[in-house]
Specification:
Length: about 375
């Protein structure tokens, strides 16, 4: 079965499997073997569910074919999916006018991104400006730098944008810039020069964008990159293209560029201790604007002006409050319930249990990251 031949309910599980495989491979590279083992078990479990759904679908198709002699009907939707699969263009761009999606962008992003209203609104405005033709058509759709402490939603927002704007969370290329701290590692982005090891493989960045031109490119912890990386970035931001080691020009005009940074995190953490506890709405807003101003100054001191001036927005993320972490816990629990539904298991939890998850999973310094471990320990382990 190819992806397009899978039953509709199995496609969502297949996406989960691909994401888990990526996380598992990353865990192995980081020598986190216990985590890799847990992810492998989840992968096998999901594959079992997919196989069951395929068998069920085969039986239904067999029953339908026995009930009538009518051949398979190829619909407009089938053709849209095939064109999208062949070209790498998201099916939504093949099928509908994106104006409706752009208008509802904030509403959709807010469902998954909690406590970062300013970030969501700034991104939505920038993307709308780009799509109505108010900016240079030779540049990427939009480019942002996300600054903030760990666990506040920077990477999650990038994944959500990939899913919403390009149709799948897999439409995202993630590059850990700590791997490109040395001068000799920079060539891995565009490919090794002729005669060197890895020349035939292509660049980690250029080859990925060449194969999937409609994508989010996430440069994680950009401040760790070697200065030569920024010279490369200037060409992408200004001209929307990059030449790889084989002399091929790779088009970045249909990409969303996102750079995450921990520069200014200490300022946000200090200011965030007061936000959400003893301030009213206006005071919170004023405090956030003050913090944003301080972080922006730190970014200007750390990064070159010609780099920052080419970005569409410098976005500062708030530190999460306990109330916001509770909302995120509800979203994570809902995902667990959806996975259990496929196994025909109905589950509900009490308010007391939700509060316990939040109490054990909330840490102002780490944001929402400990939440997933708390849910795994308190819920998934006991069910397993």
């Amino acid at each position: 079965f190819t992806y397009l031949q899978l039953p509709e309910e199995a496609r969502g599980l297949e996406k989960e499997v691909r994401q888990i495989v990526k996380e598992k491979d990353e865990a192995v590279r980081n020598q986190e073997f216990e985590k890799a083992g847990e992810l492998r078990d989840k992968e096998m479990d999901l594959k079992t569910q997919i196989s069951a759904l395929i068998e069920k679908n085969k039986e239904m198709n067999k029953a339908e074919s026995e009930a009538g002699d009518v051949g398979a009907l190829v619909t407009e939707v089938d053709i849209q999916h095939i064109v999208a699969a062949w070209t790498g263009i998201p099916v939504d761009k093949v099928s509908v006018d994106e104006s409706d999606r752009l208008l509802k962008m904030e509403e959709t992003l807010h469902k998954r991104i909690i406590g970062q209203d300013e970030a969501v609104e700034a991104i939505s405005r920038a993307i709308r400006r780009a799509r109505v033709g108010l900016k240079n058509p030779n540049r990427p759709i939009a480019s942002f730098i996300f600054s903030g402490p760990t666990g506040v939603g920077k990477s999650e927002l990038a994944k959500t944008l990939a899913s919403y704007y390009f149709g799948s969370e897999e439409a995202m290329i993630r590059l850990d810039m700590s791997e490109f701290m040395e001068r000799h590692t920079v060539s891995k982005l565009i490919g090794s020069p002729p005669g060197y090891v890895g020349y035939t493989e292509g660049g980690q960045l250029t080859e990925a964008v060449r194969r999937r031109p409609y994508t989010v490119v996430l440069f994680d912890e950009i401040e760790k990159a070697h200065p030569d990386v920024f010279n490369m970035m200037l060409q992408i931001l200004e001209d929307g293209r990059l030449t790889d080691s084989k002399g091929r020009t790779v088009d970045f005009k249909n990409t969303l560029l996102i750079m995450t940074s921990n520069v200014g995190s200490s300022v946000i953490e200090k200011g965030g201790r007061r936000i959400g506890f003893d301030l009213d709405y206006d005071e919170k807003d004023s405090s956030y604007n003050r913090i944003k101003s301080l972080v922006t100054e730190e970014l200007k001191q750390y990064f070159r002006p010609e780099f920052l001036n080419r970005l569409d927005e410098m976005i500062v993320f708030r530190q999460l409050t306990k109330l916001e972490v509770k909302e995120i816990a509800d979203i994570m629990l809902k995902e667990v319930f959806e996975r259990l539904k496929v196994k025909e298991i109905e589950l509900s939890v009490t308010e007391r249990f939700r509060e316990r998850v939040v109490d054990e999973g909330y840490n102002p310094s780490y944001g929402a990251r400990p939440l997933r471990r708390a849910i795994m320990r308190l819920l998934e382990d006991s069910m397993a």
